[in-house]
Amino acid sequence: MDMVPASGQDLKQSSDWIDWLATHHDATLSLHPEVMILAARYGDGHLRAAKAVALQLLLMDSQISLGILDYYRFVNPGLDNLIRWGYLTSVKRAPSLWRWFYMSTQSIDPMSHTQRMINHIGMRRFYTALKDAPPKLIVSTYPTAAGVVSTLKQQGKLDAINFVVMTDYSVHSQWIHPAVDMYFVGSEDMRNELLDRKVPDSKIMVSGIPVDERFQEEVDIERVKASLNVDATLPILLFMGGAYMPIGEYVQVLKILDQVRVPHTTIVIAGHEAVRMNLAKQYLPQAANPMVVLGYVNNVHELMAISSLLISKAGGLTTTESLCRGLPTIIYRPIPGQEDANAEFLVRNGAGRRAHSEEDLGEIVTHLLEHPWELKSMAHQARALGHADAAQIVAQQIYLALQNEEAHAPA
User: Fold this and answer.
1) C-alpha to C-alpha distance for 13 and 10, rounded to whole angstroms
2) What is the dihedral of CA 331, 175, 97, 111, to 10 degrees?
3) What residue stretches are annotated with the Diacylglycerol glucosyltransferase N-terminal domain (predicted)?
């Protein structure tokens, strides 16, 4: 299916509508959408992937009936807050505990009592909300939601097509369910892992992980550098993902990056973390090399395009965005479990290096800046792994599945 180019105004209006819809569940349900996308907020990658797919669907057909639900927040706000608190607390303060939980459920039997129990979380509330006007197709970018949909299909309560978009570069049992019609995965490695787990090849598509459509755009690098008032001749280190670091370590990492002996500029993205942004700004007067400190930004696609090296924790969406931009990554302090797997994927394929300590981080950055041909090779490998059109691919398959269902519907 050929994509129809959209104007900037079309993109803005569609994107704004999707952002609004994702936070207004009653509006989603009142539309009785034929396509329902289910996400969650544990890390923002699941929701970002959902929005990327939704945008491409609207660009294909502005009249398509579309809804987005933040699954846990919808079915049980109290439980959502508890799980969110537990997740954030464990990955910050007890990462070994989170690693244990992730690994202990890595290969759980989809038909086990534990998995069946997980697949019933929020199911009654979800089914009650949809049963009178069920969607024709459901897309899950969060594993628990995929399990709930699969269970409802197995019980004969739901007849929707069930698509699953996996948002990391590893296969975890929480994603695998009997009544899934198609898995969209980020790499050939993941396809092979699913095949090893007896998922039919006909149900697997290597689409890449969906990211914002702006990661396909050409970037005016000189303009972006000028807007930040940075030296266009210096390599740029882009530091993201520090929100999970202890405060003292965060400041130490800033120093280590700044004190790399090769002249460079460091761009620090603090996001919504006001404390970290203030600490970075307090460090500025003593910086040995130019440093730019930013809060929340909506132009990561541009900042990645002008950078030479990303320092990050290997979240699924951030990892994918860096691949789409051909940006080599140094992984530091990934969240145990899924981000360990993302880090291993980057390292194995030559698109990243992993730093296991602060000292290691400084040595790797220094080495790569002193050996730019190695950076160039890593950038080439990253670009080869990226699937900047993943959201379009997933949206096309959704659209085709809807058309096929209509073609075979009883007269």
Assistant:
1) 5
2) -160
3) 46-211
pLDDT at 3: 37
* Token pair belonging to 363: 């040595």
Torsion of CA 110, 113, 116, 118, to 10 degrees: -100
Q: Both tokens of residue 19?
A: 């952002």
| Secondary structure tally for the chain: helices H, strands E | 19, 12
Residues 19 and 30 in one domain: yes
Residue tagged 């952002």 (tokens): 19
Pick out the chain residues at pLDDT < 70: 1-11, 42-43, 80-81, 83-117, 119, 242-243, 406-411
Q: What is the CATH number of the domain that holds 79?
A: 3.40.50.2000
Name the domain count of the chain. 2
| pLDDT at site 1 | 34
Measured CA to CA, the distance from residue 238 to residue 232 in angstroms comes to 15
Q: How many CA atoms within 13 Å lie on the side-chain side of 337?
A: 22
Q: Which amino acid is at 179?
A: A
Residue 261 belongs to what domain range?
215-385
| Total residue length of the chain | 411
Within 10 angstroms of residue 51's Cβ, the number of other Cβ atoms is: 23
Both structure tokens of 108: 């759980």
For residues 345 and 400, membership in a common domain is answered with: no
Structure confidence at residue 348 (pLDDT) = 95
Q: Is residue 3 part of a domain?
A: no
Say yes or no: 263 and 379 in one domain: yes
Identify residue 190 by its one-letter amino acid code.
M
